[in-house]
Amino acid sequence: MSDDKLLVVRDLTTIFATAGGDLTAVAHVSFDLDRNETLGIVGESGSGKTVLSRTIMGLQPRVNTTVSGSSIIDGFEVVGASEDDKRTIWGTEVAMVFQDPMTSLNPVMRIGKQIDESLRVRLGMSRHDAKARAIELLELVGIPSPVERYNAYPGQLSGGMRQRVVIAIALACSPKLLMADEPTTGLDVTIQAQILNLLDELKDRLKMSIILVTHDLGVVATRTSRIVVMYAGRIVETGTTRDVFYHHRMPYTRALLESSPKVSNKSHTRLVTIPGRPPNLLNLSPGCSFAPRCKYATDQCHSERPELQPSIEPGHTFACWNPLPVNAEASLP
Amino acid sequence: MSNFGGIEEVAELALMVEKPEKSEPLGLFFWICVFWVGLNIFGAIFANVLPLQNPLYENFNAINAAPGLHHLFGTDDLGRDILSRVVYGSRISITVGLGAILIGYGVGAPLGMLAAYRRSRFDAILTTVMYLLLAFPAIIAVIAILSFWTPRSLFKIIVVIGVASIPLVYRVIRTATLNVATKDYVIAAKVQGATDRRILMKELLPNIAPIALSFFLIGVATIIVLEGALAFLGLSVNPPTPSWGNMINEARTVLSQNIWLALFPSLAMCLFLIALNFIGDRIRSHFDVTEVKL
Question: N or C, where is chain B less crowded by C-beta within 10 Å?
Answer without folding.
Answer: N
